Amino acid sequence: MSAKRKVLTYTLIMLIPAALIFVLSVLLIGIFLMYGADIELMLADTVYISAPPVIRIIVVWAVIAIPIVIISAVFISNYMSKKLLLPLENLSKGVEQMKKGDLTYEFVGSDDSELRALCASFEGLRLQLQKNVRKTLQKENEQKMLLANISHDIRTPVTSIKGYVEGIRDGIADTPEKRDHYLRTIYLKAEAIEQMAENLSIYSKLELGRVQYSRKKLDIFAMLKGIAEEFSLDLQTANIEQTVEITDEPAFVMADSEKMRRVFANIITNAIKYKKPGKGSLAIKGELTPNGVLISFSDSGIGINEKELPHIFDGFYRGDPSRNSKIEGNGLGLSISRRIVSDHGGKIWAKSEGGKGTEMLIILPVIKES
Ligand code: ADP
Fold first, then answer.
1. How far apart are CA 34 and CA 28, in angstroms?
2. Which protein residue's CA is at the shortest distance from atom 3 of ligand 1?
3. Residue whose CB lies within 8 A of the most ligand 1 atoms, among 206, 275, 322, 335, for a mutation test
4. Kindly report the CA angle at 301 between 299 and 307, in degrees rounded to 5?
5. On the chain, which terminus has fewer CB atoms closer than 10 Å, C or N?
6. CA pair distance 273, 268, nearest whole angstrom
7. For ligand 1, is residue 322 a contact (CB within 6 Å)?
8. Residues 293/220, Cβ–Cβ less than 8 Å
9. Which neighbouring-strand residues pair with 216?
């Protein structure tokens, strides 16, 4: 019911007692005019008879009218409180709960359309607040995890560097070969820390939106071919056969070449890190589709199981096999890649079946040749 109609209805309801009183007064005056003498005879025994006729009419009128007014007032106030006050009370109760931080109070509708709309707005607000609180808690949790992960990832290589230095100092590395092996390991561990610090720095800059992209028009296929070439020796050393199927046509995108290189390098490095023992393969493909440039990397590695697949692009997420093995990493590579690709207006996703290899796919918007 619209507000205008409602006001009209309430006004009409309020007019009912007045109308009743008016009708009764007219009736009473009529009756007194017609049967005044008989009535006076009927009431002859009472004290009332001693009063003048006008007062008598007023008294009879009042005796009938007052109960009508009271009954109508009770009825109207009941009706109003059911229709308006109760839902308003519920609303204010809910707001009070929200102020105390309890977001579980549901703002249920009322049969009144305006109040129902108001309740719906409050319910929307409550659900939005609940969502924000959940997000904040999740962020807080992620930050706690981040701190725990950073300290773990730093402590592990530092502990082993200390162990190897002690080995050299205490003379355990007593041959030139052993010393050489210890020093190489120290160097690799230091490199891992450096890599982690760099990843952390770029990850937090991306999270804070503080990364400056220097975008230029570049032929992404030419760049991809260059990277495939660059990694061919690493892949060969890892016993991975590389195949490259990239369209000869150029495909121009507006991109920061250094950041895109980081994305491709991370995916190829993962194909090496997560390979199965023995000979492996990596197929790099690039083609132009109506939706943009589609790039894919299919490896024959250990794969990612269904449970882990939705999380591999989350910051610090490491799959079970990688966490439990000696494979270096801190779970930042793919989350950095996802952010870079989405900042370029693209999308990155993965397809995999545990034990059957992984396919990483990237789609990027092309710029039309003019
Ligand atoms: P990191 O390699 O440092 O652990 P990433 O963000 O690059 O971190 O990858 C996250 C997780 O995704 C890895 O820990 C691993 O479990 C899984 N993963 C990524 N790429 C592959 C792949 N090619 N094959 C199997 N698992 C992969």
1. 10
2. 329
3. 322
4. 105
5. C
6. 9
7. yes
8. yes
9. 255
pLDDT at 316: 80
CA distances from 123 to 109, 126, 305 (A): 9, 5, 39
User: Tens digit of pLDDT for each residue in 256-276?
Assistant: 999 999 999 999 999 999 999
Question: For ligand 1, is residue 318 a contact (CB within 6 Å)?
Answer: yes
Ligand 1 centre distance from Cα of residue 322 (Å): 7
* 359: its two tokens: 């396919």
Both tokens assigned to 301: 């590695």
Helix, coil or strand: residue 46? coil
Q: Which amino acid is at 183?
A: L
DSSP characters over 273-289: HTPPSS-EEEEEEEEEE
Q: What is the mean pLDDT of residues 228-236?
A: 95
Name the CA radius of gyration of the chain, rounded: 41
Burial class (CB in 10 A: 0-12, 13-18, 19+), 295: buried
- Provide CB contacts within 8 A for 113, sequence distance 6+: 1, 2
Amino acid at 159: T
Residue carrying structure tokens 């991109």? 255
Band (pLDDT 50/70/90 cuts) for residue 296 is very high
Q: Contacts by 143-147 with C-beta closer than 8 Å and gap 24+?
A: 145/316, 146/315, 146/316
Give me the amino acid identity at 44.
A
| Pure H helices in the chain | 3-42, 53-80, 86-99, 113-169, 176-207, 220-237, 257-273, 320-324, 333-343
Task: Answer whether 251's CB lies under 8 Å from 288's CB.
Answer: yes
Residues 6+ apart with CB under 8 A from 211: 202, 205, 259, 343
| For range 93-110, the mean pLDDT | 87
Would you state the pLDDT for residue 20?
76
pTM: 0.66
Distances (CA, A) of 337 to 199, 258, 268, 334: 11, 12, 12, 5
Which tokens sit at 334? 């793919």
How close is the Cα of 270 to the center of ligand 1, in Å? 6
Residue 116 — φ and ψ, nearest 5°?
A: -65, -40
